[in-house]
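Morning F.,

Quick status update on the modeling queue. The single chain you submitted on Monday has been processed. Sequence for confirmation:
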Amino acid sequence: MSETPRPSRDIYNDDDFPVSLVRKTIFAGTGRPVEAIAGKPLIAVISSATEINPGHMHLSELAARVKDGVWSAGGAPFECNLPAPCDGVAMGHAGMRFVLAQRDLIADLAETHARSMRFDGVVFLASCDKIIPGMIMAAARLNLPAIVVTGGANTFAVRYSPGFKQSISHKDYADLADKLSTASCATCGACEIMGTANTFQCMAEALGLALSGSAAVPAFHAQKRREAQAAGERIVGMVKEGLSSGKILTRAALENALAVDMAIGGSTNASLHLPAIARELGLTLSLSDFNSMAEKVPTLLSIAPNGPHGMTDLFRAGGIPAVMKVLAGDLHLDALTVSGRSVAQVVEAARVLDESVIPPRDRPRLPQGGTVALFGSLAPEGSVIKQSAVSPEMRVFEGPAAVFESEADCLAAIRENRLSDGSVLVIRNEGPKGAPGMPEMLAVTMALDLSDLKRVALVTDGRFSGATAGPCVGHVSPEAFAGGPIALVRDGDKIALDIPGRKIDLLVSESELAARRASWKPVLREAPPGYMRRYRRHVGSAAKGAVLD
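Structure tokens below.
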């Protein structure tokens, strides 16, 4: 590969004298005169370090290691920071409405900063849910050499409990203290389950944007520091080789990531973020593509909430390269990675170290992939469910609707014991435009899990956390605010859920629905002045990634 002209030339050269003097005096103020860095690859180290959540509290240390690597390889690094919203901290209150919306802000900020400062390459550091997808979206737009350094997973406190049963799943513990310890972060890093955070750490590697083997390395492990420095060294090499993100982020890379997502039992939020990344590349990844891949690729792993294991177990068993080795026949092996090696070379070097965690392909946890889309009269554009977290007896279900206009209304009904087994709970007006912001419904799913209700389904135009288990259907599209059929459901209407058949239907006649539509009006929830009002105007359907037009 030959090196392409570097954007940083605009900063270093004197063609626009005397304006170039301004740049030189500004650089001198940083303590690094422009003469000292002229000609070196200018590298952005874009970190989401923050003190308010464990997933990102350690990233300043990793950023320092990245910069060490950049300097040692002959580059000039400059660090900046982006927001790092935490779904867990935002859960159950109005703050959750602002979390998904930050994904597109993060993409915009990273893109515009890199373009304005004329960086030659970018190293992104993040651990959690919306930040990694937003950064990858920015990488797709920039088409510069780019590497994602993932912050790694934490370990839950239950691993250090005398009652530890080699499981991090709360379902395996009766004692309340032990149950709580399966959701208590004992170290820095992203929550240890296969939620959206770890799903997208794995996706960064499966896409080829992270160093091979890095995604499953625990946040507290010394290897994470070594890999951060290696990433700093490698980004300089990528600049010199002209290995840009556009040569890595291809249709083949997206399909590889989707295959890995199915195998690891990834979060349903992947059906928002992978299509959004595809859109930045001028490609389309549809909900039907999720179904096609789920038919082809089984759920290999049993990482909570799909089973007893955690990310520490995946690391010990060989990480994502070992998963990809098992899936080799399902992957585009000629796809490139940031190392310059192909997926075929990564797979060749990988080893499965524990088949109880990463089983052979003919002994998967489930015969199909984790996330599938359901279509039907309730969701003409589609909806999403994590089938790997649904018990077999609930994969086909029919019941009367109990309708709630918000998550808060449903939570109140659960607390007051107003619900009955056999019901289909419908929470609407929680979509991208309706909420606005498409909040997660984890508070409701947790409340249901702790209640006496054993046979209920949940359907919403909102979304779910990767921690959610059970027959929970989210992303129902079109959403209620846009006049989708979910807006017309009434208490007592029958709803039929058929996961194997990929169907979700509202069993109400067309004539009755037409009569209801004639008197329907959208619920316009108040949004504070500022970004969320603009977001509501421009955000698209969840079925297409909830991206801004």
